[in-house]
């Protein structure tokens, strides 16, 4: 299970790298989808399956709308791809910085199997029945702030 969580972490970092290293929104959206799904899987392994579901639904739903608007405004006939030298060099530099940071912080020495919350074998979903009730009772303000932020982002992109 620990290897799977590390794989999801690697996918999350690579998805963020794909979004950050590519100036074209056509290819950046692929990195966004990979990062959101890997982040959701990572949260499931920690035992918060409802938060993971909310991440995938709200984040991907809201941000893909923003990417559709930016793609329609960017109308570039020849977008830069991941194989262009500038994008490859930028991605290699960012990956090098991440690897040096991992080596310096000593993360590679912590590769022991500690398990997950309520996880046994391939079962990694925690019994999480109170997630929706807590989100709507205690987190209503955060939902309103998040909705306001998405609306503001939509207007900024349209301008």
UniProtKB/TrEMBL annotation:
Q: Where found, per UniProt?
A: Mitochondrion membrane
Q: Which GO molecular function terms does the record list?
A: NADH dehydrogenase (ubiquinone) activity
What is its membrane topology? Multi-pass membrane protein
One Pfam family this sequence matches: Oxidored_q3
In this entry, which stretches build a coiled coil? none
Annotated TM spans: 30-48, 55-75, 87-111, 132-158
Q: What is the predominant subcellular site recorded for this chain? A: mitochondrion
Q: What is this protein called?
A: NADH-ubiquinone oxidoreductase chain 6
Q: Which organism is it from?
A: Vidua chalybeata
């Amino acid at each position: 299970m620990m290897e799977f969580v590390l794989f999801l972490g690697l996918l999350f970092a690579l998805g963020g790298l794909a979004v950050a290293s590519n100036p074209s929104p056509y290819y950046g959206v692929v990195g966004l989808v990979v990062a959101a799904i890997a982040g959701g899987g990572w949260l499931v392994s920690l035992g918060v399956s409802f938060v993971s579901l909310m991440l995938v639904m709200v984040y991907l739903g809201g941000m893909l709308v923003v990417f559709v608007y930016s793609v329609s405004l960017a109308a570039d006939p020849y977008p830069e791809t991941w194989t262009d030298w500038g994008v490859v060099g930028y991605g290699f530099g960012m990956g090098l910085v991440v690897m040096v940071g991992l080596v310096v912080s000593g993360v590679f020495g912590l590769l022991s199997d500690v398990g997950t919350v309520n996880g046994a074998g391939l079962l990694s979903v925690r019994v999480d029945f109170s997630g929706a009730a807590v989100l709507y009772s205690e987190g209503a303000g955060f939902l309103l702030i998040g909705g306001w932020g998405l609306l503001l982002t939509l207007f900024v992109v349209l301008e």
